[in-house]
Amino acid sequence: MLSTLPNLLTLSRIFAVPLLVALMWEPVPWAWATAFLLYCIAAITDYFDGYLARARGTVSKVGVFLDPIADKIMVAAVIVMLVHDGMVHGASVVAALIILLREIIVSGLREFLAGLQVSLPVSRLAKWKTAAQMVALGALVLAGAAALLPPGLPVRLAGITLLWVAAGLTLVTGYDYLRVGLKHMDA
Known about the structure:
By secondary structure, this protein is mainly alpha-helical. It has a single domain (5-182), classed as Four Helix Bundle (Hemerythrin (Met), subunit A) (Up-down Bundle). The chain has helices spanning 5-24, 29-56, 61-85, 92-115, 124-143, 155-182.
């Protein structure tokens, strides 16, 4: 089942993470521009792997398992590297932490509920959160290539603003998921 196109797209996202980290390791504009292109390709595969699996009727347990892991690995790695490089610093680290902590909590909650055979479907608002998060992180990676961009382009400001929007949506959707999950837990 790993050899289906949707699963290969998901795996490509996982395998792209070490290269993303390597490209973002030092503040070299061409490397960050390359990281931005790789990040965009990886983010697009997040859409297409699920779309293709549903359209072709090839949704698999492996894909259902790997897709959220691939997303979380990529998001966490990019956030860590943005903080490492100082692209995200000061109070904005709080927004990044909110996103990371929510991902860990919701993953744990999904694992717990799976043991009870309870599904926790992705809400429409959570999809908006993911979109805001992906665009925010992409803008911040692109900001690392600022020397190659037209002067005065507010890419970093847009990225930080969207990071806070994503953090706000993260709190709301995280609370929604936790509220649903708590109904299935014994007091």
